[in-house]
Design brief:
By secondary structure, the chain is of the alpha+beta class. Helix content is 48%, strand content 15%. The protein has a domain of 46 residues. Helix 1 crosses helix 2.
């Protein structure tokens, strides 16, 4: 995956969570995202920032809820 924007599916694979968890992260603004033609696009730097923040664990629910 290259720099730029990622799809929800690509982010879900990177974070090892469900698509719905990625949608929750976008809606809660924990992941900066843009809607393009009704589809979410997430900047790669936003995903990198979330990963480096240490707020991601192996538990998919903790990613979506921040616990």
């Amino acid at each position: 995956m290259s720099d730029g924007f990622l799809t929800v599916k690509e982010v879900a694979v990177l974070l090892r969570v469900s698509d719905e968890s990625v949608y929750r992260l976008c809606r809660s603004k924990r992941l900066k995202a843009t809607r393009v033609g009704g589809l979410w696009r997430i900047p790669r730097e936003s995903v990198d920032k979330l990963l480096s923040s240490g707020q991601v664990s192996g538990d998919p629910d903790s990613v979506a809820t921040g616990e």
